[in-house]
Amino acid sequence: MSNKIIVTTGDLKNDYEILGPVYFSVSNKGLFGSQLGTLIKKYKGEIENLKKESLLSKERIDWGALWGEFSAGQNDFDKAFFIAVQELKSRASILQADAIVSMRQDIDLDTNGFQHFYLQMYGTAVKFK
């Protein structure tokens, strides 16, 4: 089950076998934006629970406000980050992984109005010995 998969940006002390890389990307722009909308619906219950537990922002994030600009598109980024981790776990579960080590993310932000983002997340799927 993918929810039991450990995800870490570092390494683990456990002995493990490397299964291979796992990767997921999502964006709120163009064709990828419809994928994000579909995934938000897929994880709606979990996202609502995280909001209730104050583990996910209840309000819409407006990063443009940090730079004094209006931004319409950044409000789904916190959801996209959660979804990306869940989808990364899902891909690792296909490999029968116990964990994902050295998880990294690459975030590209639209610097013209801060309306769009592109998030890539990747790591190494491992199986404990």
Automatic annotation (TrEMBL):
Q: Which InterPro entries match?
A: UPF0145_dom_sf, UPF0145_YbjQ-like
- Per the UniProt record, one Pfam family is YbjQ_1
Family, according to the entry, reads as follows: Belongs to the UPF0145 family.
* Name under which the protein is recorded: Heavy metal-binding domain-containing protein
- Organism of this sequence: Flavobacterium myungsuense
